[in-house]
Amino acid sequence: MNDIKDFLKEERNQEWRVELKKSMKAKERTGRVRGHMPEADPKTRNKNSQEVNLGLELQQAVSEAGRCLDCVNPTCIDGCPVGINIPKFIKQIEARDFNGAATTLKETNALPAVCGRVCPQEKQCEATCFYSVSLKKDPVAIGHLERFAADYERDSGNMSVPVVGKPNGIKIAIIGSGPAGLACAGDMAKSGYDVTVFEALHEFGGVLKYGIPEFRLPNEIVDVEIDIMKKMGVKFRKNYIIGKTLTFDDLREQGFKAFFVGSGAGNPSFMNIPGENYNNIFSSNEYLTRVNLMNAANNEFDTPVISGKYVAVIGGGNTAMDSVRTAKRLGAERAMIIYRRSMEEMPARVEEVKHAIEEEIEIMNLHNPVEYFADEKGRVNKMRVQKMMLGEPDSSGRRRPIPIENSEFDIEVDTVIVSVGVSPNPLIPSVLPDLKISKWGTIEVNPETMQSSVDDIFAGGDIVRGGATVILALGDGRLAAAGMHKYVSEKVKVN
Amino acid sequence: MYKILEKEIFSENVIKLVIEAPEISRSRKPGHFVIVRIDEKGERIPLTIAGADEKKGTITLIIQRVGVTTCKLTDLKPGDYIRDVAGPLGKATHIEKVGTVLCAGGGVGVAPLLPIVEGFKKVGNHIVTVIAARSKDRVILEEQMRQNSDEVIIMTDDGSYGNKGLVTHGMEEVIKREKVDMSVIIGPAVMMKFASQLTKKYNIPTVASLNTIMVDGTGMCGACRCSVDGKTRFVCVDGPEFDAHSVDFDEMLQRLGAYKEKELEAYLKYLKIRPLDE
Q1: Is the peptide bond before A429 cis (omega within 30 degrees of 0)?
Q2: Do A295 and B255 touch (CB under 8 A)?
Q3: How many whole angstroms separate alpha carbon B176 and alpha carbon B162?
Q4: Hey, how many other C-beta atoms are within 10 angstroms of the C-beta on B260?
Q5: How far are the Cα atoms of B94, B183, B199 from residue B179, in angstroms, in the given order?
Q6: ipTM exceeding 0.90?
Q7: Nearest to A277 among B219, B251, B263 (CB)
Q8: For A50-88, what is each residue's pLDDT tens digit?
C-alpha cells in the first residue's frame, strides 16, 4: 500500500504537476461550477437511438479538469475498483495532453470509453472525491472526463495500439468476449501470449453488445476496442460454446495452457408469480437482445419485437432503465418502471433515472406485481400490483419492502419486461464437475489470483460475482491475467 | 461461414440440408440442436440436429418451411453459405437400455427423432417406431427408421399410406399388444400433448422434445421458457427434452403463437420479394 502512495506522491511532485497546480489558486478552482454534460433533447431522443450524452466540449473538459485540486491524499482513487490514477489523467487534461490522459487511463482500465459511459461514478470515485466528502460540493466530473479523454483519442484517429511483448507461443483461451474477457485478453496479449477469445454469440462484446443499448453505449465504441485487440494479435472466434462445441479437454489437446472463464451472468430471473408465462412478458435480456443484438426494431432485420403501447418494466436497476427507455423509443405511450422499494434504494445509476424521467418514463415506486392476466390469445392485458412500504434494512443494507395488505389494484398493460436480476450462466459449471461452485452458482476463485479449483481455469466478472458492473469485470480480467501469467510461468516450460 | 454441401427435397415443405460444421459434427449427440442465422439480418432459430457424419465433418438438418427464415434457409443451394451455426446446444438425450421403447414422430418431428432411435437401438432396446404424417408425400425418413427400428408403423391422416389415423392410434395399438417400457415423442406441440396424455393413461414414462421460440439458445433470454411440473424451465439449457407428463403443453402452444401475426406479416412480405425462379 505504501508503495502505491509513494508512487503517487512521486508522480504528483513532478515538475509539470507542481507548475500546473501553482498556475491557479485553489479558491478559483473550487469556485468553478461542475460542468454540465451536453445531452440530446429528451423529446427527440426518446424516439431514436441517438446517444443521450454528447460528451464534454474540449474547453469544458479543460475547465472541469481545473476544478480538481490534485489532492495530497487522492481519495477518489480509493473509490475506483481498478485504482485508476485519477488525478494524473485529470491533470493531463488540464495540461491539454489528452492522448496522455487516455494512456494513463489505459494503464489500469482496458475500456475507458466504455467505463466513462456506464460506470456508477456517483457511488465510486465521485463519491470519495474531496469535493463530495469535505467541501460538500458537486464532485469533479471524473466520469465525464474519462469519457472525454478516451473519445478524444479515438476521434483523433491516433488510437495507440498497446505494445505487445515478444511472442512466447503459449496458447491461452478466453471464454466470453464481454468486459472481463476483453480485459484479460488484452493483458495476456501484452505479455506476449497467443490469445484466442471464444464467443458463443455471433457478435463480440458480450453484455456491452446484447445488453446496453445504443443510446447509452454505441456499438461502434466496443467495435473499435475489439479492432485494437485484433491488431494486438488477439484471435476472435464466434459461435463457440466452450464445453459444447469444444470441451476444455479438446482445447487442452490443441495446446491451450490456461483458460479464463468470463461467461457472465446471463440467466434471467423471473418472479414465479401467476401468469408470468403469458405472451408479451419478456425478460429484460430477451427484450434487449432482440433490440440491441438482433436489431429487431429495424424492419430490414428478420427478428421481431413487440412494440407495446402500455409497457411495464419490473425492477429498479440499470437493465430495467435500459429496457423501459428502449420501450419508449419503440413507441410506447406509457412506459413505466414498477419498483418495490423507494427511489433512494434504486440500484440504477442516478444519471439513468434522471434521463428516464426527462424522457417521460413513469416511475412507480413501492409497487410490486402479484399477478398477470391475459386476453383470449394468451397475451398479457392487465397486471395486478400491490403497494409496499419500507421496513428495517435487510442483508443488502437497503430497507426491506413489506407488502401492504388489501392494497392491490390493476394496471392495463400490453407488454411486461421482467428485470429483477440475473444469475450466473450455468453452461460452463454444468460441464466441469470438478469446478467448485457456490450455492449461487458462481465459480469460486482465489480473490487474489482469480484461479478456480481447477488449476488451469481462471474466472472473473459476473460468473464469479453474480450481477455486478463493467468496471469490476474489467478489474477481474486484469487480475486474472496477472494470476494466469504467474501460473503459466511456473507450470509451463517455455522452450 | 458454414457451407451447404448437399440438399435433398423430401417434399414440397420439408428439405434436408447437409452442412459443413466439423466441430459440431464431432461433439453432437442425439437430442442436441443448433442455432442458425442465415445472414447479417437474419434471426437466430433453433433446429434439432437430425444426423452427423463425423468423418466428413457434416451435420444434417431437416427443415420444414413454416416462415421467412425456414423458407430462406431451404431456398439456399449446395455451395451456398450460412453465416452462423452455433452448437451443439441443449442436453443430450439420456440413452440407456430399458427394454421396449415406443418412439413416435409427427411430421418433421421424425427428423430429430431419428438420432434418438439410433441411440436407443444401439444399446440394445427393442424399438417400435410410429411415423405420423398428414399424407403419403409427407412421410419422411421411413427407410432410415426401418434400419434402426424393430418395427415401423406408419399413420397418415388421410390413409394415403400405412394406416389411416392419428399418431395416438398407432401408439395405442402397440401399447395394447405389448409391454412398453418407455416412450419418446417428438412433433408438433398438439401431437405431443395428445401422445403424452395417452402414455400417461398407461403409466409409460415418456420424454418429449420441445421446440419453442428461442433467441440466443444458451440460457440467456428465457424466450423458450415453459412450465414443467409447475416450475418455469428453459428449453435451451434445461431441455430440450422433458418428462412429457409434467409439461404444460397448453402453455407451450400459447407461447408458440407469440409472434404469429408478425410472422405472417413478414411471410407475406417475403413472398412478394422472393425471386420468381425459386
Answers
A1: no
A2: no
A3: 19
A4: 12
A5: 21, 11, 12
A6: yes
A7: B251
A8: 999 999 999 999 999 999 999 999 999 999 988 999 999
